[in-house]
Design brief:
Layout (H helix, E strand, L loop, with lengths): L2 H8 L3 H13 L4 H7 L1 H4 L11 H12 L8 H14 L18 H9 L3 H15 L1 H12 L3 H4 L2 H15 L6 H14 L16 H11 L5 H15 L6 H15 L20 H8 L4 H11 L3 H17 L8 H15 L4 H22 L1
Helix pairs in contact: 1-2, 2-6, 3-6, 5-11, 5-19, 7-8, 8-9, 8-12, 9-11, 11-12, 11-14, 13-20, 14-15, 14-19, 14-20, 17-20, 18-19, 19-20
């Protein structure tokens, strides 16, 4: 455990945190292992004025970037997150307290959320998880969050899903920091009543799902980006649910999108010859114009090798444009775009729509910050 680095993050000292990181790299420290050591501090990083735990969610999505990267690419990615975690305020530490050894029902957790009792909610969550298991706890919490997609802009599933995935991945870590964060979030959001499950058929595959995903990747701005991110989260936690529950989640996502119409990206040509190296890619990427990158992507996503290169270039490009402060959606939105391109590469209108939607949002964020 890198105590000095965690202390610098806790004390909101980004200069010292980055100094420690560079010292670790100079001693041949593994940047990904440094990332993993950040787990307990990351869970408490806030993003005011929003209540959503954007940064713990971003932390998990980083894991989805690594397969695209070489070892030499990882330090730049970790620099971004360390600076972001260190400069932001933190949720106060919640004392752990005594975890009941008796059975706890999920309805008791909902009641504690309704009482707006952060400590009681976290303790009951810990007791339920210990007795029923992490996957059962995760599934129940996500079903609870599914009733609040409109009021949370999808975060009651999307943030919760990725935070829970990381908690279950990390047997080496005490889950209390995660449970405290989720208890705080659900109490603040007043996510306290699990909805009745949708009982009718839902488009969980094939052409029906394709139609709704095409709607999701349509449109510009933060709301439309969240339509894509929300399905990304649902698909990443699909293994927690039976068919009826999964149909409910996708049905909730469709209701969240409302009457949104489809808008397909119109390419100006048949695709451009892919870049030969990152320097060529970055020269065009740094112009902050989505369409030239999307046109390149039209050729690159046709093969696994091309998608691998495109993913690496996009991640490196986002890191290289960093000027000391990022909206976390600059990274979580990239995760959703990569997921769509990887899983729907045979339907270019979906894959390229997701990429355009993300780049349009990201480049606008960069222009606004400049």
């Amino acid at each position: 455990m890198r105590v000095d680095l965690l202390d610098a993050i806790e004390n909101s000292d980004p200069v010292r945190a980055l100094e420690i990181f560079e010292e670790e790299l100079a001693r041949n420290g593994d940047p990904w292992k440094i990332h993993l050591d950040l787990f307990p501090s990351v869970q408490r990083v806030l993003n005011p004025p929003f209540i959503n735990p954007h940064l713990p969610k971003m932390y998990r999505i980083y894991r989805e970037f690594v397969p695209y990267l070489g070892r030499e690419d990882v330090p730049a990615l970790v620099r971004v997150e360390i600076n972001e975690y260190a400069q932001r305020p933190k949720l106060e530490k919640l004392p752990k307290g005594r975890i009941p050894g008796t059975a706890v029902s999920f309805e008791e957790i909902e009641a504690a959320i309704g009482e707006h009792d952060w400590h009681k909610t976290a303790i009951l969550m810990a007791a339920f998880r210990a007795r029923e298991g992490g996957p059962e706890f995760a599934g129940r919490l996500l079903l609870l969050g599914s009733g609040y997609l409109d009021s949370s802009l999808g975060h009651s599933i999307s943030c919760t899903a990725f935070i829970l995935l990381e908690m279950l991945e990390r047997d080496d870590q005490d889950p209390w920091s995660v449970l405290a964060t989720l208890a705080d979030y659900f109490c603040k959001g007043r996510f306290q009543t699990t909805p009745d499950l949708h009982r009718g058929p839902a488009p969980t595959s094939g052409e029906a799902l394709y139609h709704h995903l095409l709607r999701a990747v349509s449109g510009r701005g933060i709301v439309n980006l969240h339509h894509t991110i929300t399905l990304y989260a649902i698909e990443r936690v699909r293994h927690f649910f039976d068919e009826t529950q999964y149909n409910h989640l996708t049905g909730s996502w469709i209701e969240f999108m409302g009457e949104k119409l489809t808008e397909q990206v119109k390419l100006r040509g048949q695709g451009k010859e892919p870049p030969t190296d990152y320097i060529e890619f970055h020269e065009k990427f740094s112009r902050l114009e989505p369409m030239p990158i999307v046109e390149w992507a039209g050729e690159m996503i046709e093969s696994q090798e091309g998608r691998q290169m495109l993913g690496r270039f996009l991640i490196k490009g986002v890191c290289n444009l960093y000027q000391g402060q990022y909206n976390p959606h600059n990274l979580t939105g990239l995760g959703s775009a990569l997921w769509v391109m990887e899983n729907w590469s045979d339907r270019k209108e979906v894959a390229l729509g997701a990429l355009f939607q993300y780049l349009d949002y990201f480049f606008q964020e960069i222009r606004s910050d400049s």
